[in-house]
Amino acid sequence: MPKPEILDVQGQAVHRALVRLGISGISDVRQGKHFELEVDDTVDDETLHKVAGELLANPVIEDWVVTRV
Amino acid sequence: MTRVGVITFPGTLDDGDAARAVRRAGGEPVALWHADSDLQGVAAVIVPGGFSYGDYLRAGAIASMAPIMQSVIDAARVGMPVLGICNGFQILCEAGLLPGALLRNAGLHFVCRDQRLRIETTATPWTRDFSVGDEIVVPVKNIDGRYHADAATLQRLEAENRVVFRYAGGNPNGSLNDIAGVCSEDGRVVGLMPHPEHAIDELTGPSTDGLGLFRSLLGVLAAA
């Protein structure tokens, strides 16, 4: 997700579209990315955090979380 | 003749014009391929514009991990001049050679126009022939050109005189502090979103102002 201090112009455009659709009660939209990785048991959390922080996200502008499902 | 490398990634568009600009300025362009790691003995490298890897993941993210980029990073660490233009600037930021990142333009539009830029420092090999305060006109053409860095980084860039180019006559994309281009701590690595390589010939560009960057480089290398 874009860091909170980043101006998310795409999220703002989505929000304006929601207002045009007449949907009320939504005060903000922020747009991010979601990746699904198929991993086997040999891939530990440390590796997944490295993948997230060094390739999938750019830590200059994005925050990220890793969730196993 | 001074050899200047121009990298081609899958999706690079402006390698031809970058090579032509080097040649017009009096240098010998050397084509470098993304999948190689040999810099072929070049004295400087240009990372040109385009849409490397289709901008997949983030603009410049995948290209920044190409084999040739590891060689560029190693060479830049020991002072080789590097210029990143547009997608090349994004690649240098993603590679960690330059601070900050480029975000989607504030207006969400692809902006393509002739743009005035103010030269803010001549302490780089790419701007040595200019004077501080000079204005040049070169094309800008991108959708992810909004420069961003955190407040501390921005303050440091300004304090260390590392903003190299600033938008003049209107900010096209919402870049912080009207920043169009920045440089590394040693000034040798420069990145900018607008395209000096498209402004070297009155026939095809808005000016010949862009040639100044390539002449500066060749002058610096000849004097070295």
Oligomeric state of shown chains: heterodimer
Number of domain modules of chain B? 1
Can you name the CATH architecture of chain B?
3-Layer(aba) Sandwich
**How many beta strands in the DSSP annotation of chain A?**
0
Mass-distribution shape of chain B: globular
Could you estimate the helical fraction of the residues of chain A in percent? Answer: 25-40%
Mean pLDDT of chain A: 95
In percent, how helical is the residue content of chain B? Answer: 10-25%
Largest interface: A-B, 11 and 19 residues
Distance between the termini of chain B: 14 Å
Which structural category do the helix and sheet elements of chain B fall into? Answer: alpha/beta
Catalytic activity (chain B): L-glutamine + H2O = L-glutamate + NH4(+); N(2)-formyl-N(1)-(5-phospho-beta-D-ribosyl)glycinamide + L-glutamine + ATP + H2O = 2-formamido-N(1)-(5-O-phospho-beta-D-ribosyl)acetamidine + L-glutamate + ADP + phosphate + H(+)
GO cellular component, one term (chain B): cytoplasm
Pathway (chain B): Purine metabolism; IMP biosynthesis via de novo pathway; 5-amino-1-(5-phospho-D-ribosyl)imidazole from N(2)-formyl-N(1)-(5-phospho-D-ribosyl)glycinamide: step 1/2
EC number (chain B): 6.3.5.3, 3.5.1.2
